[in-house]
Amino acid sequence: MRYMKSGFDGRLRNNGRRLFRRLKKAFVLDDNAKSFLAEQGYVIPYFTQNDLQSEDFVRSFIFYYYTEGYGADTSAQYKNGYFEWFENSVRDTYKLLFGADMPEYHPTDNGSVLYENGNYKISVSNRGDGRYEFISAENVGDGMDVVFKNTDSTGTDFGNVTFRLVSADNANGYIITQKTN
Fold this sequence. Notes:
Distance between the termini: 41 Å
Order of helices and strands: HHHHEEHEEEEEE
Shape: globular
Mean pLDDT: 80
Radius of gyration: 18 Å
Low-confidence stretches: 1-25
Number of strands: 8
Strand content: 25-35%
């Protein structure tokens, strides 16, 4: 939905930006954000900021994030052993999560991720039964480190996973700048 620009809208937007800059230094991680990040533990590969423009990271991200139809209407998006996603939808998700534009990636011969007619086709896979349990969140510098314990259904401990978050003016209120173990 588009809004007409008015003087009031501009003042509101500028005031919002000033408020955001004041709040940018620290933010609160609520239960919804913790749950969302726990889900992301399954589907986002380990990375640092330097990896975001790497073809290997982009391929891994697309495969792991979309292989089980994460967030999909599976009846509509599952076709011939693949989940199909519009390229723009994948790019929007990348930008929302990482705050960076996704580099061009149009594979035609990779069996797990294909690109055809403006769509990514991601082969179906099963990520297993891993679980991410929230451990802690700590403000660090201009961001926050959020730590989860990674286990499976038997309780086997696979160690901790840390997400580094930085405040951002987007729907989540932050971007993920790295995932490490």
